[in-house]
Fold this sequence. Notes:
CATH class of chain B: Mainly Beta
Number of helices of chain B: 3
Strand content of chain B: 35-45%
Helix content of chain B: under 10%
Strand order of the largest sheet of chain A: 1-4
Order of helices and strands of chain A: EHHEHHEE
Oligomer: heterodimer
Amino acid sequence: MPRPMTTSPGMPLFHPFFVGMGGALLIAAAFTDAMYVSNSLMQWANFSAWLIAAGLVLALLATIMLLIDGLFGRAGRIRLPDLVLLGAAAILSLFNVFVHTRDAWTSVMPSGIVLSWLVAVLLLIAGLRGWRVTEIRAIRTRGTV
Amino acid sequence: MIRTLVKSTVTLVLVAALGACDTKGGDPARQYGPDPWLPEPQQYLLPPMSVPQVVGWQPGEMPTVAAGMHIQAMATGLMHPRIVYALPNGDVLVVESNGPGTEPFRPKDYIQGKIKARAGAAAKGGNRITLLRDTNGDGVPELRTVLVDHLHSPYGVAWVAGTLYVANTDAILAFPFTPGQTRITASGTKLADLPAGPIDHHWTKSMVAGPDGTKLYVGVGSNSNITENGMAAEEGRAAIYEVDRLTGTKRIFASGTRNPTNLAIQPGTGQLFAVVNERDEIGPDLVPDYLTSVKDGAFYGWPYSYWGQHVDQRVHPQNPAMVAKAIKPDYGLSSHVAALGLAFSQGETVSPRFADGVFVAEHGSWDRVPLNGYQVVFVPFANGRPAGTPIPVMTGFLAPGQKVVRGRPVGVTLDRSGALLVADDVGNVVWRVSGGAH
């Protein structure tokens, strides 16, 4: 009589770490933007520009890691809502990094900070959902139960 | 579903990005004179950057001058020449210089620096003053020596009563000097500090001696385009200083002048004039650079407003009291021409058309489509004030098609014979334009 099939958790995914780290930077930019709006000190707007630029670099790394997860067979089914949330956050941030190249006040007010907070909300939801766009592929083994 | 969503978002982004940089500049002629056309300011998504590639002058190539005038290269192979200055004995000083370099604050600064470098802005300056001696006045110097070396981003020079004043980016130095000397060995003494680092965005310190020789006037540029390096960095900047030649005591003579790149005293009246470069990144036709007589105590708007009471929304906190104080400059030269050179004509030495007025060198735009400037113009005067439209004197710095740049004019002056000398910091040449009689 054949032994029953069981599943066990597979190898960890690579991409969520990069999604989470980039997400944290982009969320931080919403706060540095808010600081600039409240005190008009340019250094806060400079922080925002760097945070968003770095967040986008990590978004690119996360995309590469997602492909690697796929190639190594670690990724399971795509989680559509998370892909949409994170994709939208990345595209809005691309806009935002250009808005932040403007000089002084208009680099943040009004469109820069609106974009930053929109991105922060999207990322907050994505974060609470687990910072990942795929399921972990379960490994099926012949159980010994 | 996702594909459609992504596709439409990407299209939206591209359309917005392209739309933002699609705005082309209008006819510069609409912005000449005392009442220039001023469009509504715009905000860019991508910073406006449009610089032609530097190729330099190929053998046989020269700037174009009008019929009846003669052009020749008086000196070549210089190290980023910026200012030319004629001494009473006919010797010509060439200030070879570039900025001390600034640390980037933002990701944008890296990219913008790289693109401007493409236009030759990053070439190393000589940090020295070269002397050219042309005894027989044929425009070919018989002697060329390094007069002073190891300066710190020098720009303006003025010789008064046995002393050569050199405006380094951080201080005015005084050297004992008698025209005829070909080498200064004495180390200069510091007359006065000038606002400089650590950012030093507009590093040039233009300088001219006042009509009675007791005062020096020094142009100090802003430390940013429009306060993006913080308000604290603008302390004492964007102003024209009056410095006592003997004591070094200085006071702000006029303020709100974003980048007063050159100063000149009007012959006869003794009135101080300046060319000033205005702010960037609110449109291809904002804000016109200008030529103006400089009034004692006047405020010309930067950063809060431009051309009188046109408020700049990028400055925060705003200052309505200062906006109310801002006066309009005399004469618009059109936007982004980067007027750097200024010299009064001295009669009909270059051409009968250029008897009364100023020569203005326009270094050329880096953020405007189509490009603007890249020429030397003559602004005619009537009754001691600029009047009429600028007349091109030297063109051809930009090759036809606006794709490559051969040279960029900076400082201008007249030599002893009345010929026009023009420093070209991309061609590394000093050009000499003489009238038919010379």
